[in-house]
Amino acid sequence: YDEISLKQAEIYYSLCLTEIKLGKLAHALLWYELFLIINENISDSSFGDKENQQVDFYISQLILNTDLKGINRQSNIPDELDRLGLFVSSGCLKYALGYIEDFEREYEVTADKDHNDFLQKIRDFDAGFNSKGIKDNHDKRGVHTSFIFGCTIEINFPNRSPFIEFSTNVLSLLEGAFATCTIDNIYLKEAFLIIEVIADD
Fold this sequence. Notes:
By secondary structure, the chain is mainly alpha-helical. It contains nine helices and three strands, in the order ααααααααββαβ.
């Protein structure tokens, strides 16, 4: 294990959080598994339960902010979440999928109004970023949208790397550039900005 370092664990953990913020659950779980593998083989690692709980909470929030169509596509994920020790996320997903009896039996809770209220608090909690649900999709092209000072920005791109990351960065750049419009007395005249990223298939 001469090639394993704490820095690797830090990078994989950071990438996992980034993917969660982008709504890309499948990618996040891959990075998290790599993080766990590396972290288990570092004797002086500072990572522990706190990081596990943070990832578990963020993924739970991601799941609870996903629409029913998106949730139904995740029906094979609960076992994977359990395997990675993300039991809260797994419970939230089972509940969202409608596996109520299994959920109550495994977690020894009653799925009543109080429990619904608790899940809504998790869903709506301000974690420092806007969780819009799971964005894993299998369409040929993807779309990122944002609304800045009256202007709708849409970026249409091939749904694969590196175009996904490139389009996300372009949107972030535009949001950052126009974040201080009112302070700088800059006003956007156009109601729409549509950017199409084209690649040879």
